[in-house]
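== Sequence, C-alpha cells ==
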Amino acid sequence: MLEHTPGMNDTELIEKRRALLGPNVSTFYQRPVHIVKGEDVWLWDADGRRYLDCYNNVPHVGHCNPRVVEAIASQSRQLNVHSRYLHENLVTYAEKLTATFGGELSNALLTCTGSEANDIALRMAEAMTGKRGVIATDATYHGNTSLVSQLSTSNPPAHGFGLGQYVRHVEAPDSLRIDDPQGLRFAAKVQEQIDALERSGIGFAALIVCPLFLNEGFPTQAPGWLRPTEQVVRAAGGFLICDEVQSGFARSGSHFWAHQKQGVTPDVVTMGKPMGNGYPVAGLVTRPEVMARFRGSYRYFNTFGGNPVACAAAMAVLEEIDQRQLQANAAKIGALAAKALTGLSAKYPVIGDVRQSGMVFGVEFVKDRTTLAPAAELADQVVNALRERGILLSRLGRHKNTLKIRPPMTFSEKHLGLLMQALDEVLAGLAP
C-alpha cells in the first residue's frame, strides 16, 4: 500500500501537487487535511489525529469496508479482464442491480464514472428522440466530460455554453425563497425551455435532474413534487434522466432510489460514486428498447466498465446495504438529524432553513430571516471551524450557504451526537 512520504510536511506536499499536477488542483478547507487512513466513518491524518467523516458518500458502506475489501482482493487474485470475454460477475450484478428498480428499467450498462454514465444517457435520449436539446437546472453539476460539463453553470466553458445552444437552463428549485409546493412552477419553467428548443429547430431531447436536487441545496419537497415536470417532459416526447450519483443506493431512507420517492419513472437512471465504495464503478439503468436503440446507434465499449473486480466490489456494496439494513438506518438517522437541527435553529437565527432527506441533511445559513440574504461567509467559517474540531463536512447550493452533511450510510446515533454537539459549540462562537 502507498504510504505518505515520510517527513513530507503539508506545505511540501501542496507544493509538490502544484508542481506535478498543475495549478488550481482543488483541496478542501483553508488548512487542507492530509489523510492517510480510513475505517468506517473515521479518517486519520498524517499526525494520527482522527476525524469524523460527515461528508463522503463514496465510501457508501464505510471506509475500507471489510466485505468490499475482501471482494476486491479475492477477485483480483483470480481474474480481472474486460467485458468482451464472458464472466458471471457482470450479469449477476446487473440482475441484482436492476431488481432494485422493478418494472421496465431492466437493462444496465456499467462505466467507470458518473460523468461517463450521464454522457451516455444524453446519447440515448438523442438516439430515441432524434433531437439534441437538453435542459438542466442553473445550479447543478452532472460531470466533467465535454458534453455534460456544459450542464453546470458554476464552471462555464471557456467558449460559452451550449454546443450550438443545445443546452438550456431552468431556475433551480428553492424551497426557502420560491413558493412552489406542488412543483407546478418548476414544471412551467421546464415547459418554457422545451418550447424555446422546439422553436429554435434544435428540438427537445431530455431533462436531466438529481431527484433530490442535492447540488442545488436539496430544497424541501413533498413526495411527488417532480410529477408535474415528468408529465411536461412526456407530453413533449422527451426523456427524463435522473442522476442518482448522490441520491441513490438507499440514501433517501424511504426508498432505494430517490426518483421512487418523487413518484416518477425515469427513462434512464445514472449512478456512480457510492456504487463500488471507492473502487471506480458507475453506470446506468434503462428500458430494453432504449438500450437496443443505443447499441444500434453507437459503437460503444468501455475497457474497464463492468470488469470482474468492479462488479465484485459493487455486489458487496449491495449486500452490505441489504444485510446491515442501511436503508432503515438512513431513515432513522435522518429523522433524528432533522429534529436536532430544528432544535439548533431555535437557538441560532442564522439558520434560515433545515434540510433533510434520509442520510443527507444540513441547514441553510442566512444573514437575516426576513430578507433571507445568504450567509455564505458564515457557512465557510462553520465548515472550517468544524474541521479544526475533527468534523469533516462541506457546503453547497446556489449561494454556497447550505451545509452538506452526507456521511457514509453506517453513520450512527452516537456519531450524530458528536456532530451536533460540535456544530452547536461552533455556532455559539461564530453566530452573531
Notes: The first helix runs from residue 10 to 21. The first strand starts at residue 35 and ends at 39. The mean pLDDT is 93. The CA atoms of residues 73 and 309 lie 8 Å apart.
